[in-house]
User: What shape does this take?
Amino acid sequence: MGYLDPAGVDVLAPNLKRRLSGVTATVVRLLPLQRDHIAIAAVAPALPRHVPQIRLRALLTMSRHGPSGARVWHARRNSEMLAGLFLKHVLRKRLKLLFTSASQRRHTRYSKWLIARMDRVISTSQKTATYLDRPSTVILHGIDTRDFAPPADRAAAKSALGLPPGPIIGCFGRIRAQKGTGDFVDAMVRVLADRPDAAAIVMGRATEHHQAYERSLRKKVLAAGLEDQILFKPEVPVDQIAAWYQALDLFIAPQRWEGFGLTPLEAMACGVPVIATRVGAFEELVVDGSTGALVPPKDVDAMAAAAATYLDNPAERMFQGEAARRHIEDAFAIEREVAAINAVYRDLLESRK
Assistant: This one.
């Protein structure tokens, strides 16, 4: 798909960060589905070509008005809220400003100042909404259950990626202490030492500031003699990640802090039970004892014990994986998220204020 003409666009969804992030994954998931119902385009330096988008420089030359009058500017970061305010008040573009908040901590004074100037706010969970100083519309993230689905043959999925045939536990995301990567590695050292048929995957990228941390984790694995069982894999593009979930038997979301966190939904959609820490929205996503298990953050003992239970009970693991898939289909299909966000857009576009 080529770049769109902004003259025909009602909603602009900026993604002003080049590196892969949760926001980037959200934009890539949502916009191809949203465009079937509303004229929407991303504004970004680097996104897959199937995502509807306009060129960054088109923001400066686009008409003041959109096809419906004012356009909606849907920001998900402080920098994007600031850009929306600049476009509206300096360049005099007619914009309705919308912000989605995923943060589950008190906002800085600067963030509060920006949020107060938005026309509407969306929260990604009930817990997130409690950290705002103004009303918001709660819309939980959803998952495309066509792209993220159980494999026809999990053994074949492992083989296709060159992975060992035994049970595999995954932890995907940025590598840093806040994300609990070290807690995951510590738990896996304990669990896999006497389970030579099982393996674990750490998949993600460490930014420059966190590369020493990643090296320390690799050294810990080497010291334990588990380098053939605890595997470090590089980050893959968002359109390839489903294949890696389909090769897993168990997923662990070990975060010490999280805003929302899509990885448990992605794993459960692929029929994989999830162990998650009680942070972010995870308690609103994982049904403890049914689609996975919830453990306290930083509690390596609890994480290791839960993982050992799943590894040693393949029938229960399979049963909960099937329940996890049904849970996603019933409560977290992406079509619900698309419809709810588009409804907010329409309210803004129709509002004369």
About this structure: The longest strand covers residues 95-101. The first helix runs from residue 22 to 34. Residues 6-142+334-350 form a domain with the Rossmann fold fold (CATH 3.40.50.2000). The mean pLDDT is 94.
